[in-house]
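Whiteboard transcription, Tuesday session. T.W. wrote the C-alpha coordinates on the left side:
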Protein backbone atom coordinates (compact mmCIF):
# COMPACT_ATOMS: atom_id res chain seq x y z
CA UNK A 1 0.00 0.00 0.00
CA UNK A 2 1.24 3.49 -0.88
CA UNK A 3 0.57 6.34 1.52
CA UNK A 4 0.22 10.08 0.94
CA UNK A 5 0.07 12.40 3.94
CA UNK A 6 -1.33 15.91 3.80
CA UNK A 7 -2.87 18.64 5.92
CA UNK A 8 0.17 20.04 7.66
CA UNK A 9 0.86 23.74 7.96
CA UNK A 10 1.63 26.65 10.24
CA UNK A 11 -0.70 27.25 13.16
CA UNK A 12 -0.59 29.27 16.35
CA UNK A 13 -0.39 27.60 19.72
CA UNK A 14 -3.86 26.50 20.82
CA UNK A 15 -5.00 26.00 17.25
CA UNK A 16 -6.06 22.88 15.39
CA UNK A 17 -5.08 20.93 12.31
CA UNK A 18 -6.41 17.78 10.71
CA UNK A 19 -3.92 15.55 8.97
CA UNK A 20 -5.00 13.07 6.31
CA UNK A 21 -3.26 9.99 4.99
CA UNK A 22 -4.64 8.53 1.78
CA UNK A 23 -3.80 4.96 0.83
CA UNK A 24 -3.69 3.40 -2.60
CA UNK A 25 -2.56 0.20 -4.23
CA UNK A 26 -3.67 -2.20 -1.53
CA UNK A 27 -6.50 -3.33 0.69
CA UNK A 28 -6.66 -0.43 3.12
CA UNK A 29 -9.10 -2.15 5.45
CA UNK A 30 -6.53 -4.93 5.98
CA UNK A 31 -3.97 -2.53 7.40
CA UNK A 32 -3.38 -1.22 10.89
CA UNK A 33 -2.48 2.48 10.68
CA UNK A 34 -0.43 4.91 12.70
CA UNK A 35 0.90 8.42 12.97
CA UNK A 36 4.44 9.16 14.05
CA UNK A 37 6.39 12.40 14.12
CA UNK A 38 10.03 13.32 13.79
CA UNK A 39 12.23 16.36 14.27
CA UNK A 40 15.84 16.90 13.30
CA UNK A 41 16.86 16.29 16.91
CA UNK A 42 14.68 13.27 17.69
CA UNK A 43 14.00 9.86 16.33
CA UNK A 44 10.59 9.09 14.90
CA UNK A 45 8.18 8.89 17.81
CA UNK A 46 4.76 7.37 18.18
CA UNK A 47 1.72 9.66 18.18
CA UNK A 48 -1.37 7.51 17.60
CA UNK A 49 -2.49 4.24 16.05
CA UNK A 50 -5.71 2.55 15.01
CA UNK A 51 -6.40 -1.07 14.18
CA UNK A 52 -7.66 -2.19 10.79
CA UNK A 53 -11.32 -2.22 11.81
CA UNK A 54 -11.12 1.10 13.59
CA UNK A 55 -12.31 -0.43 16.85
CA UNK A 56 -9.12 0.10 18.86
CA UNK A 57 -7.24 3.37 19.14
CA UNK A 58 -3.98 4.04 20.90
CA UNK A 59 -2.29 7.29 21.87
CA UNK A 60 1.02 8.50 23.18
CA UNK A 61 0.79 10.22 26.54
CA UNK A 62 1.60 13.52 24.84
CA UNK A 63 -1.36 13.07 22.46
CA UNK A 64 -4.06 11.90 24.84
CA UNK A 65 -6.92 14.34 25.25
CA UNK A 66 -5.73 16.56 22.40
CA UNK A 67 -5.41 14.32 19.32
CA UNK A 68 -7.89 11.91 17.80
CA UNK A 69 -7.18 9.25 15.20
CA UNK A 70 -9.91 7.93 12.95
CA UNK A 71 -10.26 6.13 9.65
CA UNK A 72 -12.67 5.77 6.78
CA UNK A 73 -12.16 2.38 5.18
CA UNK A 74 -14.58 3.20 2.38
CA UNK A 75 -12.44 6.20 1.37
CA UNK A 76 -9.03 4.67 2.21
CA UNK A 77 -8.13 7.52 4.55
CA UNK A 78 -6.84 7.79 8.08
CA UNK A 79 -7.08 11.10 9.92
CA UNK A 80 -5.33 12.74 12.81
CA UNK A 81 -7.32 15.57 14.36
CA UNK A 82 -4.96 17.71 16.44
CA UNK A 83 -6.38 20.23 18.88
CA UNK A 84 -4.80 22.51 21.49
CA UNK A 85 -1.54 22.40 19.59
CA UNK A 86 1.69 23.32 21.35
CA UNK A 87 5.04 24.48 19.96
CA UNK A 88 6.52 21.12 21.00
CA UNK A 89 4.15 19.42 18.54
CA UNK A 90 6.21 20.95 15.73
CA UNK A 91 7.54 18.09 13.60
CA UNK A 92 7.17 16.22 10.36
CA UNK A 93 4.25 13.84 10.75
CA UNK A 94 4.30 10.46 9.02
CA UNK A 95 1.60 7.87 8.55
CA UNK A 96 2.56 4.22 8.72
CA UNK A 97 0.78 1.00 7.75
CA UNK A 98 1.08 -2.66 8.67
CA UNK A 99 -0.85 -5.50 7.10
CA UNK A 100 -2.92 -7.19 9.78
CA UNK A 101 -2.28 -10.65 8.36
CA UNK A 102 1.41 -10.70 9.25
CA UNK A 103 1.29 -9.45 12.81
CA UNK A 104 -0.18 -11.51 15.62
CA UNK A 105 -0.61 -8.90 18.33
CA UNK A 106 -0.89 -5.31 17.13
CA UNK A 107 -1.99 -4.27 20.60
CA UNK A 108 1.49 -4.89 21.96
CA UNK A 109 3.44 -3.58 18.97
CA UNK A 110 1.71 -0.39 17.87
CA UNK A 111 4.20 2.00 19.53
CA UNK A 112 7.27 0.78 17.67
CA UNK A 113 8.24 2.39 14.37
CA UNK A 114 9.59 -1.00 13.27
CA UNK A 115 6.08 -2.44 13.31
CA UNK A 116 5.17 -0.50 10.16
CA UNK A 117 6.45 -1.52 6.74
CA UNK A 118 4.90 1.26 4.69
CA UNK A 119 5.33 4.98 5.23
CA UNK A 120 4.05 8.13 3.62
CA UNK A 121 6.31 11.04 2.69
CA UNK A 122 5.49 13.17 5.75
CA UNK A 123 3.75 16.49 6.24
CA UNK A 124 5.24 19.40 8.16
CA UNK A 125 3.39 20.78 11.18
CA UNK A 126 4.71 24.02 12.68
CA UNK A 127 3.17 25.49 15.81
CA UNK A 128 4.17 29.04 16.68
CA UNK A 129 4.13 30.38 20.21
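and on the right, the sequence the group agreed on:
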Amino acid sequence: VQLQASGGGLVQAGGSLRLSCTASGGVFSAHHMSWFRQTSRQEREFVAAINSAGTNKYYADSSKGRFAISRDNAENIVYLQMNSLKPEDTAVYYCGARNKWNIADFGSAYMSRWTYYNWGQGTQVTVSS
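Someone added at the bottom: The radius of gyration is 14 Å.
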